[in-house]
Please model this.
Amino acid sequence: MKSFVVFAIAAVLAIANCDEMYSSKFENIDVDAIIKNERLLQNHFNCLLEGKGCTPEAEELKKKIPEIMETCCAKCSDKHKEGAKKMTQNLIENKPEYIKQILDKYDPDRKYTQKCSENLKSGGIDLSGF
Model:
């Protein structure tokens, strides 16, 4: 479960398709279970920001965050994007500080947020306030 949050936050800058996709092993993660469990959500957040408590899969995905952001998640499957959108919308509504801290770490100048803003807005995600 921890590994999915990497896609969820990184795909905050997403929504496009490409021939070479990221692994499908993360497509069946129960996003709702993570959203409903504060401990799991906090563990995911700690993995992304501090590298603490990461599973091997989460560590693998954490390393891909720069590419995911730079390409607006071009290698993400529709299922990755679906889960990412659900998680991102939840974080915007309930934990906006998580979004800000993740973006501060991985996109401090907001260049990827800007680059991907059209795709984000068409997917119902607005990060302009972060």
